[in-house]
Amino acid sequence: MLIIVAAGVFIVAAAAIFSLARSLPGIDELQNPDPELASLVYSRDGELLHKYFLKNRTYVQLDDVSKYVPLALIATEDLAFYDHWGFDVRRFMVAMGGNLVRGRERWHGASTITQQLAKNLFLTQERTVTRKIKELFTAIEIERTYTKQEILSLYLNTVYFNSGAYGIEAAAWTYFNKPAKELTLGESALLVGILKNPRAYDPSRNPDNSISRRDLILSLMVKAGFISDEEAESARQEELVLDYTPITNHGKAPYFTEYIRQTMKPLSREHDLNLYRDGLKIHTTLDSKMQRYAEEAVKEHVDWVQRQFDRAWVWPEDLKDQFIRESARYAELRHKGKSAAAALRELKNDRKWLDGYLHEKTRVQAAFVAIEPESGGILAWVGGTDLDQGEYQYQFDHVWQARRQPGSTFKPFVYTAAIDRGIPANYQILDQPLVLRSGDDVWSPQNSDDKSGGLTSLRDALTRSLNQVTVRLMHEFMSPSEVVRYAKKMGISSQLQPNLSIALGTSEVTPLELASAFGTFANNGTWVAPSAITHVKNRFGHIVEEHKPESRSSLDPATNYVMVTMLQDVIRRGTGRRIPYGYGLKMEAGGKTGTSQNYKDAWFVGFTPQVTAAVWVGFDDERIAFTSMEYGQGARAALPIWGIFMKKCYADPQVGLENRYFRIPDNVIAIPVSRRTNRPAEIYSDDVYIEYFTPKGFRKYQAMLEDY
């Protein structure tokens, strides 16, 4: 009978062990643990910009962690760590004896670091005998699979430190805004102290509890012989100074990092990657210093524009009523049965709500994007004026999502087509109104100041942004489709309407496209597609994607250089002259201002051999517009942002900008020309300037001289 009972017990026990064994992690799982890791976005100068995660965890090797962290952990959690095989029998017996003697309702455990790792990686947090047995067997297998150093590394990369931080690296950045390698003794003890009870010992919530726990751990480290009494006392005297960056902080350059997130979608599908758990390292083209200067420039100048607008703006009653009827509150009142008139009247009488609602509708918005022309790399990106860290990650991004009329910033494409046809920059066209018919429609474009003049060279017309000369030029020498073709070659991807009004920028484009297209001028006629990512590494440091620049030769270098000199004149003596005279920027630069119809959009695109940047300023709702040229034109509303940004960048030697010259192709012809007679002149004449010609343009100029 006893034999039968014993056999039954053995069978039941064997079945239980077999059942437990089947539910334990396999060898592959043990050798390849798969904790969820945050993907990190870095600037080109190594700054951490952002994290994408479900659990805020960043894996680091033990060599990249302060030496004090594992010592504090071992002294606190598992003093015999290097002596046991995953289970500390002596410690277990002492703990169980204490529990029995004291009759505790909640027994104290004796889990080793390896057992805790087994629970964190492979098991649940339930408090059952079954889970405890699984934990024991798994810990033993972990010890057989990994070295002690590897176990410490895995443990420190998986434990939770509260505030959304999983792993020591995420905790170091969350609480101290530094890598784990730079943690001091006191900071290391403080972070290890959080592990006992993450909420109770979170230093951002309970600093006093956290400091008490830190000091206890320092004493345990002294007792273990890991540090001296003097070191512990010095660490106790450290004042708790947090640089707390919780996970709700969307990081630096959130408009840009949201663009990165969108850019990563097809790449993630192609390589079967999960942006939120695979621990990718995404290295970008963004320069953290230039990004900071861009944000400062946008904020500084938009505040000024907003003040000018607020002083001048008066709400038209019909427009005010129209906005009210579009509000959610109006729809709600109508849904409740109120008549249209009653709902409108009620909301107009609610002054507090109405003032706040209309205030939001008249907030000035801006976009700024800077590109390195030679590589296409995006250097700085500001997608709007909402710079609240907690709010603006998923806001509408005006850099690449907003298409607006570019106004006169589109004119360079017209002049480029003309120069490439062989029309010289000093060719003269009458600056007078012209009447154009298209079916039943009549169009007569005027200059922005409503003034006219006589014969004007293309160079002067672009410098002064003359509408009448620009439209005459396209009307007499080329088709709208030809201008569209040049714009497309240079980087404009939006759909453009091939009509005469396109000469004045009536087809909508994005700031990113304009920056890219003007980058062709800065890059000797070669267009390079804008890029944001240089390469992506997986959690093991292997490159899974490397950017290969897309480029094409878009303009003949001679044509390109003549256009560069014309756009330099815009800055030296034209609508962009505030750059050298207002901001003291004397470097080689070209650019173009732009203002769309009725002052809805203000633009400036400027470039040097190293940086091309586009600026747009306007409103989200195109029914709102600036009220006058005094502050709402491109030279006043947009250009200063470029000027402030460039001044800050050139003043910072770490940015690395210098005054370089644009490359002059060998076949460009340069001769002194008189502004008064438009004929070759002696170099010492007062009104002489150097005119530049393509070979075709010079032949045309010679023919012009014969006709004079």
Automatic annotation (TrEMBL):
It catalyses: Preferential cleavage: (Ac)2-L-Lys-D-Ala-|-D-Ala. Also transpeptidation of peptidyl-alanyl moieties that are N-acyl substituents of D-alanine; [GlcNAc-(1->4)-Mur2Ac(oyl-L-Ala-gamma-D-Glu-L-Lys-D-Ala-D-Ala)](n)-di-trans,octa-cis-undecaprenyl diphosphate + beta-D-GlcNAc-(1->4)-Mur2Ac(oyl-L-Ala-gamma-D-Glu-L-Lys-D-Ala-D-Ala)-di-trans,octa-cis-undecaprenyl diphosphate = [GlcNAc-(1->4)-Mur2Ac(oyl-L-Ala-gamma-D-Glu-L-Lys-D-Ala-D-Ala)](n+1)-di-trans,octa-cis-undecaprenyl diphosphate + di-trans,octa-cis-undecaprenyl diphosphate + H(+). One of its GO terms (cellular component) is outer membrane-bounded periplasmic space. Pathway: Cell wall biogenesis; peptidoglycan biosynthesis. It holds the Pfam family Transpeptidase. GO terms for molecular function: penicillin binding; peptidoglycan glycosyltransferase activity; serine-type D-Ala-D-Ala carboxypeptidase activity. GO terms for biological process: cell wall organization; peptidoglycan biosynthetic process; proteolysis; regulation of cell shape. InterPro entries: Beta-lactam/transpept-like (IPR012338), Glyco_trans_51 (IPR001264), Glycosyltr_51/Transpeptidase (IPR050396), Lysozyme-like_dom_sf (IPR023346), PBP_transglycosylase (IPR036950), PCN-bd_Tpept (IPR001460). Residues 47-221 form the Glycosyl transferase family domain. Residues 367-617 form the Penicillin-binding protein transpeptidase domain. Coiled coil: none annotated. It is found in: Cell membrane. The keyword Glycosyltransferase applies. Keywords: Carboxypeptidase, Cell membrane, Cell shape, Cell wall biogenesis/degradation, Glycosyltransferase, Hydrolase, Membrane, Multifunctional enzyme, Peptidoglycan synthesis, Protease, Transferase. PANTHER family: BINDING PROTEIN TRANSPEPTIDASE, PUTATIVE-RELATED (PTHR32282), PENICILLIN-BINDING PROTEIN 1B (PTHR32282:SF11). In the N-terminal section; belongs to the glycosyltransferase 51 family. This is PBP1A family penicillin-binding protein. It comes from Prosthecochloris vibrioformis.
